[in-house]
Amino acid sequence: MTIKYLKKSNKNSSTDDEKTKKIVEKILKDIEKSKEEGCIELTKKFDNYEGEIIVSKEKIEEIKKKLDQKTKDDIQFSYDRVRKFAEAQLKNYGNNFEVELSKGLFAGQSLIAVDTAGCYVPAGRYAHIASAVMSITTAKVAGVKNIIACSSPKPKIGAHPKIIYTANLCGADVILNLGGVQAIAAMAYGLFGNNPANILVGPGNQFVAEAKRILFGKVGIDLFAGPTEIAIIADETADPEIVSYDLVGQAEHGYNSPAWLYTTDKSLAEKVMKRVPELIKDLPELPRTNAEAAWKDYGEVILCENNEEMAKISDEYAPEHLEVQTKNLDWWLKRLKNYGSLFLGEETTVAYGDKCSGTNHILPTKGAGKYTGGLFVGKFIKTLSFQRMTKESTELVGAAAARLSRYEGMEAHARTGDIRLKKYGYSKN
C-alpha cells in the first residue's frame, strides 16, 4: 500500500460519545418517570416553546391554506419520487411463500409491517423537510398502520410549518411538537396518548442518535447513525471545482461532519484543498461556521496510487454518502461494497438524493455501511417464518427432533416429540 494522507483529521465522529451518553441517559431516565410533563418542561427549557404539543387538525389545515403553491409543488416532487422508489422496492423486496420441505412438512415466510413507527424529523439548525418525506413515506408504503412524527418546535410557532405540511402529506397519523431526546423518549414510551413505537427512524444530532442507541432493544431502530459523512473518489478526469462544492455541501451540516477525498491525482487534491476554504468563506454565517469546523477537524484528503487502493480505503471508511467522479463508472459500481448510498458520475450529487431524486437519505454512518444499508421499506417489515405439518410427517421429523434434543441434553424438548410419536402411532413405547 502506498496510501499517503495529505490531510489527516485529529478527531473522529465518536470523540464526544461518552459525554453525550451521560447527558442522554439522565434525560431518558427523567422522562421515563416524569412522562409528558418531563417532555413539556424540557421543551420549554431547550426550545423556549410553551404551545401545544400535539399538532391539531386545525393547525394542519391552516398550514395547507397558507403555504405557497411553489413550496407545495417542490415537496410533492420529492414525495412522488420517493414514494415511487419505495413502491418499486416493495414490489421487488421479498415475497410471502410456502414450500414443502419434505412430505407433509410445510414451511414459509410472511412479511408483516410493524404496527407503530416513530419518525424523527430534525429542525434544529436546518428545517429538514426531506427527512419527513424519507421516513414517513417509506413507512406508509411498507404498510405501517400508525405513524408518529416528531419535530423540534420554535418559540410561539411550534414545528416548522413546511415540516408539518410534509408530514401530513406523507401519511403521519400524529404530529408532535417535540425535538431532541424528549421526542425519542415520547415515541418509545408511548406518551401523549400514542402507542409505543415498535421502531424509531430518522436522522438527528448526537443526542438523538444516542437516545436511539440506548433504547435499541426496547424498540427497533433504523440504524446506528451519527453525524453525516461524505466521501468522494476522484481521478484526473474529475473537475476540482465540482469536487470542492460537493465536499462543502455536506460539511455545512455541522461542526462534526466528516468530508473525505480519495484521489490518485495530486494536482486535483491540491486544487481542492485550496478551493474548499474559499468556498466555505463565501457561505452565510451558520453554514460557514459549521463547514469551517468540520473541514478543519474532520476533513481528510487521501492520495492513492491506483483505483484499487481508492476502493480499498473507501470500503474501510464505509462512508454514508459516496460520490465517484472517475472514468469507468461501471467498474466502481461492481467493485465498491461498503457505503450508505452511491452517486455515480459528476451529473449526480448528494443533495439530489438528500432532497428529491428518490433514494432514501437516512443512511448508515461511522462505518455501519459495512453491515447495513439505509432506510427502506424492509426496515418496517418483519420477515416471519411459519410451519405446518401432517400427522404422517411426524414419523421422521418428531423422531429426529427428539434425538437432536437429547444430544443437546434438552430432555423436555425431546419429550414434546415423543408424545406426538406415541399419539400418532409411531412409537412402540
Keywords:
about 425 residues, alpha/beta, Rossmann fold, 3 domains, 5-stranded parallel beta sheet, 15 helices, about 45% helix, about 20% strand
Indicate how many domains the architecture comprises.
3
Please estimate the helix content: 40-55%
Sheet with the most strands: spatial strand order: 1-13-12-11-14-15
Weakly predicted, low-confidence segments? none
What is the CATH topology of the largest domain?
Rossmann fold
Distance between the termini: 68 Å
Largest sheet entry? 6 strands, mixed
The CATH top-level class label of the largest domain: Alpha Beta
The whole-number mean of residue pLDDT values reads 93
CATH architecture of the largest domain: 3-Layer(aba) Sandwich
The total of helices stands at 15
CATH superfamily placement of the largest domain: Nitrogenase molybdenum iron protein domain
Number of strands: 16
Give the class from helix and strand content and strand pairing: alpha/beta
Shape: globular
How big is the Rg? 25 Å
Estimate the strand proportion.
15-25%
Please render the helix and strand layout as text.
Layout: E1 4-7, H1 17-47, H2 57-66, H3 69-92, E2 97-102, E3 105-113, E4 116-121, H4 129-142, E5 146-151, E6 153-154, E7 158-159, H5 161-170, E8 174-177, H6 180-189, E9 199-201, H7 206-215, E10 220-221, E11 230-234, H8 240-251, E12 259-263, H9 266-281, H10 285-298, E13 300-303, H11 307-317, E14 321-325, H12 329-335, E15 341-344, H13 350-355, E16 381-389, H14 394-407, H15 411-423
Parallel strand pairs: 4-5, 4-9, 5-8, 9-10, 11-12, 11-14, 12-13, 14-15
Antiparallel strand pairs: 1-13, 2-3, 3-16, 6-7
